[in-house]
Design brief:
It is a single chain. With 375 residues, the protein is mostly helical. Helix content is 61%, strand content 0%. It contains 17 helices and no strands. It has helices at 2-9, 21-42, 44-47, 50-53, 58-81, 86-101, 122-142, 156-168, 170-185, 191-198, 202-226, 228-238, 253-270, 274-290, 309-315, 333-338, 363-372. It is globular.
Length: 375
């Protein structure tokens, strides 16, 4: 059974209906997330994110965990009984049983633990994977750009490994980013500007924080393309040859830390309120996934103002007219202003990836690539 499961996770392509694979994958995904959720209940101080921990309605979390365990167990048991993808469903059912034996949704949580323990963001990983997959797979099926591209397209495993690591080590990245932001930008005096920004209403502060962040992101992003040493890191992100909701997760961890530091620095300096920063995080989180998605969205004239999937797909293209273009993450007009917008008679690019395809495949090889590349 483990051998078949390993072969399945190393494969790619469309899941043919009628064989239990679709329901089996859903059951296995839910079973894994439920098991991780049970572990998070057992060890919240080490497996949950402090910022999210304060916001949870524990009773609601227990109900969601219970429902997910019932759905995963029910789907997998039906498949086993009707001999549909039995090996896949049996593994999923076993995980549900194991989670139940470990206490399931009834695990008691001891609230008396220190706040400043080292942690990995397992809860953030669970919530983001569930939210992103449910929303964006649906959107991609509804408005697909490349209709023949399956959910499990080639190299999905590599991007999923990046997704896991970049979410699990969120504690380390936040610590590193905060340390760098305070050390690099903490000395700059901006008291007068801070006071002005503090008086801005929410509706004015939100587009301003997005503009500040995108200006920092634009020049940081452009440097990744124009400085050879930085391109070594950024080439990993560009190596994906298939655009979908998970493609944006392919990013070297050092690039993530550098970019977040340089983008969050000006925001920290200018003193935007917590409510505005929280709203900005929601916007950037949505756009980061949506603009990589396999969706046929251009938004007419608005595409000259804001970044759309069409705009960002061109940035990932191997087509000659698209190389080193379309750097903005939120406001497309920045590229038109600075002369770096793609100008092509075609609506969509033909090919994605790094020109020359020299970035290796696989998460570990891509992690080491910036330090081993001889080009």
């Amino acid at each position: 059974m483990l051998k078949k499961l390993n072969q399945f996770t190393e494969s790619h392509g469309a899941l043919r209906p009628g064989r239990g694979l679709v329901t089996g994958v859903i059951a296995l995904t839910l079973a894994i997330l439920c098991f991780l959720g049970v572990m998070a209940f057992h060890f919240p101080q080490y497996l949950t994110t402090p910022e999210l921990r304060k916001q949870y309605d524990v009773a609601l979390m227990r109900q969601l965990l219970f429902v997910a365990m019932v759905v995963a167990g029910g789907l997998s048991l039906v498949n086993v009984l009707f001999n549909r993808a039995r090996w896949l469903s049996a593994f999923a059912f076993g995980l549900v049983v194991l989670g139940a034996l470990l206490g399931g949704h009834q695990v008691e949580v001891d609230p008396n633990f220190p706040d400043h323990t080292p942690y990995i963001g397992m809860d953030w990983f669970i919530l983001d994977l569930l939210g992103s997959s449910l929303i964006f797979i649906f959107i991609e099926k509804l408005f697909a750009l490349r209709k023949d591209q399956p959910v499990f397209r080639p190299e999905w495993q590599t991007d999923f490994h990046h997704f896991i690591v970049n979410h699990m080590v969120i504690g380390f990245m936040l610590l590193a980013t905060n340390l760098l932001v305070h050390n690099i930008f903490g000395w700059v005096p901006v008291d007068g500007v801070r006071g002005w920004i503090a008086t801005l209403p929410f509706w004015a502060a939100l587009p301003l924080i997005i503009l500040v962040a995108d200006l920092a992101q634009y020049w940081t992003h452009r440097a990744y393309h124009e400085v050879p040493l930085l391109w070594r890191l950024h080439a990993v992100h560009h190596s994906t040859k298939h655009m979908d909701w998970m493609a944006g997760s392919r990013q070297h961890i050092l690039e993530t830390i550098i970019t977040r530091t340089l983008v969050l620095g000006p925001i920290y300096l200018l003193g935007f309120s917590k409510e505005v920063i929280d709203a900005y995080i929601i916007v950037v989180g949505f756009q980061a996934v949506f603009n990589h998605a396999n969706v046929s969205v251009r938004l007419g004239p608005l595409r000259y103002l804001i970044v759309t999937p069409n705009f960002h797909h061109w940035h990932h293209s191997q087509d000659q007219e698209a190389l080193d273009r379309n750097y903005a993450a939120h406001y497309a007009f920045l590229d038109h202003l600075f002369g770096t917008a793609v100008n092509s008679p075609r609506m969509w690019p033909e090919r994605y990836g790094v020109l020359g395809d020299y970035v290796p495949k696989g998460f570990l090889k891509q992690l080491a690539f910036p330090f081993t590349w001889k080009g």
